[in-house]
Amino acid sequence: METDNTESKTTGLAAAIENLIGARRESDGVVTFNPREWPKFLAILICLLAGYYIFKIIMSLSDLNNYDFIFGVLFLLICACGLVWAVYKLIRDRNDFVKIEGHLLSYKDNAITGEVDLNTVVKISGKKDIKLALADQSYVVIKLSEMNFNEADRNALVKEI
Fold first, then answer.
1. Non-local CB neighbours of 153 within 8 Å, separated by 6+ positions
2. In this structure, is the dihedral angle defined by the CA atoms of residues 37, 41, 42 and 43, taken in order, positive or negative?
3. In Å, how far are 29, 48, 73, 79, 109 from 87, measured between CA atoms?
4. Residue 18 — pLDDT band, cuts 50, 70, 90?
């Protein structure tokens, strides 16, 4: 199987942002894809602050009728459920990775771990997740959508394989 080992062509500010957010790290010939959690944490923090601000506004308005107050509080509770889910996923997926060391690809998705010899990979497919078709007619699915990978990280991983 042919692999493309070309380096990224981004420079300047785009390269700095890619380095801060991107998942690819290389050390001693080992390429590790482990998405950074801080952008997601920052988004959660901003949503919490916005929710607190809206809550303070709702509580400070004296001319707010009962229905508007209930609607505002229900809206905040629904948003809080989404934030709780995001925090849960952030904590659950924080140690997930895909590592390429020579011809060996290893991955960890929560409790699921595995290794694949890249010499046996015949085809790579999938939109959100990666499906590796192997020479022995079997396949391995790496669920990147459950590992905090975004589309740019997924594309970089496929290019590296």
1. 22, 23, 24, 33, 35, 144
2. positive
3. 33, 11, 21, 12, 17
4. low
DSSP for 60-119, written as a single string: H-SS--HHHHHHHHHHHHHHHHHHHHHHHHHHHTTT-EEEEETTEEEEEETTEEEEEEGG
Q: Give residue-wise pLDDT tens across range 54-105.
A: 888 888 887 878 888 888 889 999 989 989 988 888 888 777 888 888 888 8
Q: What is the pLDDT of residue 115?
A: 85
Which amino acid is present at 124? I
d(CA 123, CA 133): 5
- Whether pTM > 0.90 for this model: the answer is no
Q: Please give the Cα distance from 93 to 51 (Å, whole number).
A: 25
Q: What is the pLDDT of residue 77?
A: 92
